[in-house]
Amino acid sequence: MSTAMETSAMTVETEVVEKARRRRFKAAEKLRILKEADRCTKPGELGALLRREGLYSSHLSTWRAAQQRGELAGLATRRRGPKPQLVDARDRKIAELERETRRLQRRLARAEGLIEVQKKVSQLLGIPLANDDKD
After folding, report:
1. pTM over 0.85
2. Is position 95 within any domain?
3. Contact, 123 vs 135, CB < 8 A?
4. Which domain holds residue 109?
C-alpha cells in the first residue's frame, strides 16, 4: 500500500498549453550563453550546453553573426509597434490653433445662419432692420 502512495506522489502533473509560444531571449541571456559556448573546448561540452539551455546550434550561429556585425540593438529586446513620435511645442501650438479655428468657423456659420433667418422673418413681418445690408 505504501508503494502505491509513493508512486502517486512521485508523478508530476504537466500542463499542456493550447498554443505553443515562441521563446524570447533577453540580450543578457544571449550574451551569457554565447560566453559559455565560447568556453566549451572539450568534445560534447557544447552539445551539453545546448541541451541544458534547450537551444539549437542555429541560435548560436545567428547570435554570433549579430554580435560580429555589432548589432547590439539586435540582441536587445525591442518594443513592438510604431515608434513614439516626439511632439514639438510648435506643433502642439499649431494643432491647438487649428482646433480653435475650426471651432470659430462653426460658430460663425451658425451665427450667419441665424442672421439670415432674422432677415427673412423681418421681411415676412414687414419690420425694417436698422442696419439692412444689401448682400
Report:
1. no
2. yes
3. no
4. 88-126
